[in-house]
Design goal:
alpha+beta, 3 domains, 16% strand, transmembrane, cell membrane, transmembrane transporter activity, Macrolide_Exporter_MacB
Length: 809
Amino acid sequence: MIKNWLKIAIINYKKNWLSTIINILGLSVGLCVFLLIFIHWQDEKSYEQWIPNKENIYMVEFQVDKDAYNPVVNYPFLINAKIKFPEIENYSVINNWMDYKQKLLADGRSTFTNPIFVTEDFFKVLQFEKLVGSYENIFVDDNSIAISEDIAKQLFGDSYLQSIGKTITTDSDGKKFVVQAIYKLPNKDQKTVFRPGYLIRQPFINDNKEQWTNYSYIGFFKLKPGTDIHQLEAKLSKMQSDHEKISAKKYGWSIDYDTKAWLTNIKDIKLDAKSSGIDKGDKKSLQILLSLSVLLLILSCINLINLKIAQSSQRAKEVGVRKVIGSSKMALIIQFLLEIFLLCLVAYILAFAIVEMILPSYNKFLGKEITLDNASVFIYTGFLLVIFSVISGSIPAIYLSNFKPINTLKGNFARSKQGVWLRNSILTLQLIISSFFIICSLIINTQVNYMMKKDLGFQGDQVFQINFNKTNYIDKNFNVRKFELQKSKIKQFPGVIDITSSAQTMGNGVSSTSGARYVKDSTKSTGAGVGAIDFNYFDFYKIKFVAGRDLNPKLTSDTAKSIVVNEALVKALGWNPKQALGKELSSGMDDKHKRMEIVGVVKDFYYAGVQDKVQPVIFFNYSRNWAKNQMTNLQIKLSGDHINENVETIKKYWETEVEPGYPFNGNFVNKQFAKTYERFQKQQTLFTTLNIVVLVIALLGLFALSSLLIEQKLKDVAIKKTLGADERTIVWDLTKRFLLICVIAVFISIPFGYYAMNEWLKDFAYRIDMPIWPYVLSLFLLLILTFLVVSFKAYRATKINLVKYLKYE
């Protein structure tokens, strides 16, 4: 019986070869897109699964405003939480600054690697496998170090397991550490954001045991099993808020929002951290793409259903005969499901072949190393294949099996109103999905283009930034004269027009913040970025002043207390730019009694990407306080002539004279800032690609469907031509029903598209107003494409041989 069914299936595949190819291609492309996004989703969800007792380890974050979350907390919060709440078994600071690297020296060898700064009980929270040494009391002082197996091999060679007690020196400041333990990192297949080359005690941690307003630490708790997370969050929130009120009273600040503490399980921090977390993934975009890939699968399914229903007239007599000779309805359903399953199986195999071919390019696009060796992917997609086959095959199978033998054998099977209604409904759904994709793609492109064309508030053309490797915020021995010496030397290089520097740089956002309070009114206060700058900074970037003046190196007051602020800070304090001039502020970045006078207000410009709201920032000259040790970069403006040659000259000098043995860390500011767009440009590319795939699949399906339906009407066309109808009238008669369905579909898709895009745009502080034209263009575009596809087949139908279709009439 099954052998007979297979023969019938193959005959029908050959007979309808065009629709068979379209079905297989549509299904395979739909499955391929789904697989690519699904394995990306699985890869992001697989992070930190290697950690022992992971279900009890939580990252703590602060919600500091209605929509603002902070990944860093203060150290006394962690200490007191463990003391006050018995459900907290342990804690650790795990400051994982992924962009920071250090050169280590030992036994005449060196290596360049990244650290994680931790506190005493790190290994009781994050349990790396120990190879040799001891984890007990390892980080109670500033002279102990734990190193990874790979770094141990690089520094001590084959005898690395005997390196306990040996000394390692950091190249930047000559600080010496004693090796206390060697640990093993997770293997490459185990996804993690924690891959430190070495671990040392968090610098200056003892100085901050009472500093409740110093938010500088990424904190993790290890909780006792069975802890009620929501209750603990409430207690932690109250403790932090109570201490913030004490600090506010002490410094004369006002608080209008109680900080809330959130706990996120370590295995979920990659996607579900409330704040930016540690190398956080883009969960919302992944969810959107995964949903759209499911829609694409549904579209492929619709194509399959529609084409099979349209082919029903060719199978109706077969069904009638089989029923007459005793075949049951269930046997017919199983037969047709088997035919659909074979199509889906071929498409499934082809989809995996396509994925394997394009996976290297896909990895390069995402900047990841995803492999197709996860067994769960095959299990999930195999299950999906069965479900997909049943769903897409059930409707045409049930529809075909319900044909009545008496009707089909008489030949009036093609006139079923139910069949026409079902076919039209499914075609409408197909066009709704196509319209939805067009609308979304147009709006996403508009928003991304808006961001890329937005005035950034500064001119970074031909500005090349070099970052020091051998200076950093923990290096007490860094001398600002080193920075000024290199600045003066490089200024003499050919092609160099000017040089400046700043603690916070374009494209990297505001990394240091403090409070800012109006001295005469404590209710006027706000959080503000700390912008230590060189004197020529604003002129260098052509940043405009809206009120007041720039800092002047000839005025002693400008070195000691004068500040420039941006429009965002002025607005946050309830002034206009002119009112702000001469006002005095106090801030947590200096002694609370030290007053800073506003002498200028600059137009808002973007430190971070334009998707984020411009934060209030205080700008002051770096020479006045601790900020002089944070001038760890040079920003060099080059002439337009021989840029590449001049950059190479600077690079060669840097690598041989300034930081020999270190990788050169430099880039153009515009390229650096462009990285803030990358996530949205990738979204734009993915959505555009999905939109093209959807349209191609929809139009191929529409072409095949219209071909089958028009072929069923060739006798009607022959009669109309015989009665004198012209080609234009016949083409219009054959296409108008498809155009009407297209109009209905677009109008149904509009509210869905509006809701989806309105939700997507909520992520942007600076967003376009919802445009009308994408909805109108979607209608016209689909109408034009539908007309072109259907009318092409309709026009060919007008060229038929009349005798062939009327000879029996």
